[in-house]
Design a protein that fits this description.
Elements lengths: L1 E6 L6 E6 L2 E7 L1 H4 L9 H10 L9 E4 L7 H11 L3 H15 L1 H8 L10 E4 L2 H10 L6 E11 L2 E9 L2 E9 L4 H11 L8 H7 L8 H7 E3 L5 E3 L13 E2 L6 E2 L5 H7 L11 H29 L3 E5 L6 H4 L2 H4 L4 E3 L9 H13 L19 H10 L7 E5 L3 H13 L4 E4 L13 E5 L6 H10 L8 E5 L3 H4 L12 E3 L17 E3 L1 E3 L5 H14 L3 E6 L10 H10 L4 E4 L2 E5 L3
Parallel strand pairs: 1-4, 4-5, 6-13, 13-14, 16-23, 18-21
Antiparallel strand pairs: 1-2, 2-3, 6-7, 7-8, 9-10, 11-12, 15-24, 16-17, 17-22, 18-22, 19-20, 23-24
Length: 583
């Protein structure tokens, strides 16, 4: 049985394919389109899913999409009658809903089957049920408490539930217009970061400030009994005027979500590109502190309600790695699972698994313990691409090393010598993090590496930290928490005596957003870090995504282009090593 899962006409559109409950492929459309967070119909992602399994659309038994325009319909109508929102808000919502409703027609047109009937049965599944399924049904837990939390989807912002076996039960939810995700987005916009998905920048900025405005934030987000919360809607416009949204075949664009009342409270908003002041840093710190207070308020209620020590998290807010790293200190939960694409990209995964388990009643047989579900390329394909680009590479030396041990020893030496190394191996990562297959790697012992990466390649805000990849067995030696995180979704304090050892990955507040690496999940990357440890005594490398203000590279061609236009020193494409010749 083949199920095609789709996240369409929303940010981070994506597709996945499962066969008899096992994942074959999962990939975001942005990696093919080369536009971050690309929204619309994931045409290229769907085509890749089919190609990877040698299938045509006629071979698919079911299609699952992570939206259900009919979900919570009564509540939507009641809200419209009571609040009488602007016509623009209603029009945008209806237009998007019609696109989702006509997905089979759109799919047949995009895949060259216009006029032909798609035999696959189509299921529309409610947004947050999909998020919960994306976490629980691929987790290692037989039973878990589940929290989905983000901006909005199908009129809901937060959903709590219990997962047991192949079923999920919803036990509570928070509806539009109240949303912690919207709260974070609105303050992110106010702080001068207007692009869709910029919240992670503010999370990094928060470490530079102090939460001096927490009381003011408590006026904006009001915590209620039983894990609930409400926004003070005077500070927002999404419920009345609406927030303009562009979700169709483009970079997603959101209009301003905050009202002038927020400006009255905190002063003039920062414009994009203006200097960041201590005032802005303190607002960021206060925003993060308020989010965490509300987040743990919800989680503690969820635990009291369920008494289950296993937790599954999903939704865009589940990528708040700073808060995630504090779960064990602030709640009774003992085990936490977050799959790597916890944001809306994971909607395709959750839709497919919700259909397979919850609706079709099939038993679970798959655990997502690695993130490598995208395209890969053979040595022959890489070799052919190098031949095609031979003219552009005439200032480079190319060698091929087929022995993995020798390859890793060489590359580890490059990193230890201060080189900036592009590392392109195997299947591309699923989710927003580069996890050792599409990575740029440097020596974390060199404090200057942060500035070197920004000057040569990344060109990003200086307050954003870089991440450490660390051998799993060494986590307790370097971090205050000795808990695995193969998907780089938690931030832990680095032990004080190790902060000077790995300064390039130590944030200003002494923390690091780590990725744990073990031999089973990524043997080649593990071997590379192990060789680096043999040279330096440090079982850690600095790992940042292989890109330059674009989506993470997908193909060898994109890796070569990024290598050639930036000041990267060495590129490893499979078993090929490409050096720039210094004249």
């Amino acid at each position: 049985m083949y199920i095609l899962g789709i996240n369409a006409y929303h940010g981070d559109s994506s597709a996945c394919l499962i066969k008899d409950g096992s994942l074959i492929t999962a990939v975001e459309e942005e990696r093919f389109r080369r536009i971050k967070h690309w929204a619309g119909f994931p045409e290229k992602a769907v085509k890749h899913c089919l190609w990877s399994a040698g299938l045509g659309l006629e071979d698919i038994d079911y299609i699952a999409i992570n939206r259900n325009p009919k979900a919570n319909l009564y509540k939507k109508v009641l809200f419209t009658l009571r609040k009488r929102p602007s016509f623009a808000l209603i029009k945008d919502s209806l237009k998007n809903a019609l696109k989702v409703k006509d997905i089979k027609i759109i799919m047949s047109e995009r895949l060259g089957m216009k006029g032909q009937k798609i035999k696959a049965e189509l299921y529309h599944i409610e947004h947050h049920r999909v998020h919960m399924a994306s976490a629980f049904f691929v987790s290692p837990f037989e039973r878990a408490a589940i929290l989905s939390i983000d901006g909005f989807g199908d009129f809901v912002s937060t959903m709590m539930g219990i997962g047991e076996g192949n079923k999920i039960e919803v036990i509570d939810q928070v509806n539009f217009p109240h949303s912690l995700g919207l709260f974070y987005t609105a303050l992110t916009q106010y702080l001068g970061f207007p692009k869709y998905g910029d919240e992670y920048k503010v999370m990094g900025l928060s470490a530079y400030g102090r939460p001096v405005y927490l009381e003011e934030m408590e006026e904006i987000v009001r915590l209620k009994q039983n894990g609930r919360f409400e926004l003070n809607l005077d500070y927002f416009v999404h419920h009345s005027e609406g927030v303009s949204m562009l979700w169709e075949d483009s970079e997603p664009i959101l209009g301003r979500a905050y009202s002038d009342r927020l400006i009255e409270k905190f002063g003039p908003e920062r414009r994009y590109g203006e200097p960041i002041t201590e005032h802005h840093q303190n607002i960021a710190a206060s925003l993060q502190a308020m989010y965490e207070k509300a987040f743990f308020h919800i989680l503690n209620y969820l635990y009291e309600r369920t008494k289950i020590k296993n937790l599954c998290l999903a939704g865009g807010c589940a990528l708040n790695s700073v808060a995630n790293g504090k779960i064990f200190d602030n709640t009774p939960f003992k085990e936490v699972y977050i799959q790597p694409a916890a944001n809306d990209a994971g909607g395709s995964l959750g839709a497919a698994y919700y259909l397979y388990h919850q609706i079709l009643g099939k038993q679970r047989n798959f655990v997502m313990d690695k993130a490598y579900w995208g395209p890969d390329f053979s040595e022959a394909e890489i070799s052919e691409k190098l031949k095609v680009k031979s003219e552009e590479l005439n200032n480079c030396k190319i060698e091929k090393i087929d022995n993995e041990d020798e390859l890793c020893k060489k590359v580890a030496k490059y990193i230890a010598d201060g080189k900036v190394v592009g590392w392109f191996q195997g299947r591309m990562e699923w989710g927003p993090r580069a996890l050792g297959n599409r990575s740029i790697l440097v020596d974390p012992r060199r404090a200057e590496m942060k500035d070197i990466l920004n000057a040569r390649i990344k060109r990003r805000e200086p307050f954003r930290p870089f991440a450490p990849s660390i051998l799993l067995e060494a986590v307790g030696e370097y971090f205050e928490k000795d808990y695995p995180d193969p998907f780089m979704i938690k931030v832990y304090p680095i032990k004080e005596n190790k902060r000077k050892v790995i300064p390039a990955v130590t944030h200003v507040d002494g923390t690091g957003r780590l990725q744990t690496v073990n031999r089973e999940e990524n043997p080649l990357y593990y071997k590379l870090i192990k060789e680096f440890e043999k040279i330096t005594g440090v079982p850690v490398v600095l790992n940042t995504s292989f890109n330059e203000n674009e989506p993470i590279v997908c193909t060898p061609n994109e890796a070569l282009d990024c290598f050639l236009r930036t000041k990267m020193d060495v590129l490893i494409l499979g078993s090929f090593i490409i050096h720039k010749i210094v004249k």
